[in-house]
Amino acid sequence: MFYRRVAVTRRGTCASTLNLECRSSSCAPGASIMLTLLHGCGRSLLSARTHQNFRKSYYSAQMAKRVAVVLAGCGVYDGSEIHEASAVLVHLSRGGATVQMFAPNIEQMHVVNHLKGEPAEEKRNVLVESARLARGNIQDLSKLSVKDHDAVIFPGGFGAAKNLCTWAVQGKDCSVNGEVKAALQAFHGEGKPIGLCCISPVLAAKVFPGCEVTVGIEKDERYPDTSDTAAAINQLGCKHVSKSVTESHVDGKNKLVTTCAFMCNAPIHEIFDGIGSMVQGVLKLA
């Protein structure tokens, strides 16, 4: 990291204010910093605590990770699982990351009446529905550029298996949406971490042969769908690693961080804890 000197102003013999513009590629666009250099004073104009807070704020801003979050609609049965998506955003916020959400501009596989748990005779758009979760601040997945982000995360929900790929109807023989596959390959190719939870780790299993992921604990009644999903993942030549709902698994070679989330019949706070572990793992690798 280096800086270009912009301006210097002096105020008597007590202090000089030095404006420095960040010239590092790791800085956010237009990032700059003003450093107040105090010298020759009988008493410092800044307290030690103020100085420490300034440094902490500056370095936190410089280290903030830029994370893309890819949604698949809105609602557990035909889109992104709302609690999982919220947990991802909460933990990214707590980790000081900046977030931009994306979704493919495609029609949903189908629409499910969440009150009845039955398909409804209507059509909905994945990007439009995802905007509900994103409070309108979302972009078409086609605009996702790996150079603008340090990591990408895919929350779960049936939308990941219905709209981002066809796993819900074809299992291990499914196909992955072209834009989703391109995004996964781009981040993987740049050595940038990818986080996936619930059923979305199957995306990695389809795109990255030999990778390691978790969708929970096999042969455990709290994880009713894990055994079948894990078997399919293994059949793809990947390795399923059993992890509890509050844990995540890190595939260091491929920079994949996965957790099972609602693949487990667990209290919501345990889901949040597991996703927190996943997010922390992603941010550490970013």
From TrEMBL:
Superkingdom in the source lineage: Eukaryota
InterPro entries: Class_I_gatase-like (IPR029062)
Protein name: Zgc:162944
